[in-house]
Write a structure and sequence with these properties.
The chain has 316 residues and is α/β, with parallel strands linked by helices. It has a single domain, classed as Class I glutamine amidotransferase (GATase) domain (Rossmann fold). It is built from seven helices and eleven strands. The longest helix has 16 residues. It is globular, with a radius of gyration of 21 Å. The structure holds zinc ion. Zinc ion binds next to loops.
């Protein structure tokens, strides 16, 4: 077939398939993200943290964020069945009642088929007995036992993730379960600078007034440690003394998980909330959510990112 004829035939086909649509529309379609929240244990307050997380995501202009709120603590969860597959990623600020079995199974299928999950601080305490959730987050802590006391995740849940001698190691030997030093500012250290979420971020930055989650345990499979923080024994004698994982990615089936342990907000706290208004928390959340949803990060690192010496807390 002569070349000119071939082009003539192909152009209308390309238009019909919508290849030219992004140019005509002028802007990319927003990425659909579900912010899933609605229950906390007595140490956290989703009603304070979730709106800050929502605004952080919306402010990028990249995401269309739907907030999905579960029934409140103690209420009937049997009808809770969000349509996971409508979303490119699910961002979880949740530690509460178990979802119905069918809802959990649908979420596992969504993730295995290439879904995205972002878990924020509180969510490390969620679903200690949900095997697949433990695999998605790699490690977690605390969690309610069937008798209602906190502290389900123990040594039988799996090893701890440590950063020693320049690499990630799994520690199944050292005793001790989830804990954290008292809240304060601490340095977050980049460990995988070439990951799309971390590219362009400083090697170290000072995070504002948060908890260094320590001794988290779980299956710890298919996990990459993006950043750590030192739980310093010289500052707190009960600290682990280890470089604890703060930011992680996990591959689950064809799904992608961004796990941030940062973001403590207590029920008695009043705004501002430095831990989640820290530009470092916000930017890693925004970048981690884009990566979980698409596998890429297109966002530039803003000028107000904290430095190793100075925190950077944004106005609400
Ligand atoms: Zn906390």
């Amino acid at each position: 077939m002569p070349l000119h004829r071939s082009l003539r035939l192909r152009l209308p086909l390309a238009l019909a398939l919508g290849f030219a649509a992004p140019c005509l529309a002028g802007a990319a379609t927003p990425i659909k993200v579900m912010l899933l929240t609605g229950q906390s244990n007595q140490y956290h307050d989703w009603a304070k943290s979730a709106p800050v997380v929502r605004d952080a995501l919306a402010s990028t202009g990249l995401f269309a964020v739907d907030v999905v709120t579960t029934p409140p603590k103690g209420a009937d969860m049997s009808g809770f069945a969000p349509k996971w597959s409508d979303y490119a990623a699910v961002v979880m600020v949740y530690e509460g009642a178990e979802f119905p079995e069918a809802t959990k199974a649908a979420f596992v299928a969504y993730m295995k088929n290439g879904g995205g999950l972002v878990t924020v601080h509180d969510s490390d305490n969620a679903f200690p007995y949900w095997k697949e959730f433990n695999e998605m987050i790699a490690v977690g802590g605390w969690g309610f036992r069937p008798n209602g006391t906190i502290g389900a995740r123990d040594a039988t849940w799996g090893p701890k993730i440590r950063w020693r001698d320049g690499k990630m190691v799994l520690d199944a030997e050292t005793p001790g379960n989830a804990s954290h030093p008292p809240r304060g500012d601490f340095v977050v250290k980049t460990r995988t600078p070439d990951h799309p979420i971390m590219r362009g971020l400083p090697a170290e930055w000072l995070h504002a007034n948060d908890e260094i989650y320590s001794h988290l345990r779980g299956p710890a499979k298919n996990v990459t440690v993006l950043a750590t923080a030192h739980a310093d024994k010289t500052k707190t004698p009960t600290a682990s003394g280890e470089h604890e994982p703060m930011l992680m990615t996990i591959t689950y089936g064809r799904g992608r998980v961004f796990h941030t342990t940062l973001g403590h907000v207590a029920p008695r706290d009043t705004a501002p909330f430095p831990s989640i208004q820290c530009a470092g928390f916000i930017v890693t959340l925004q970048r981690g959510t884009e990566w979980a949803a698409t596998g890429k990060v297109t966002q530039k690192v803003p000028a107000d990112f904290p430095t190793a010496a100075k925190t950077s807390v944004r106005a609400p």
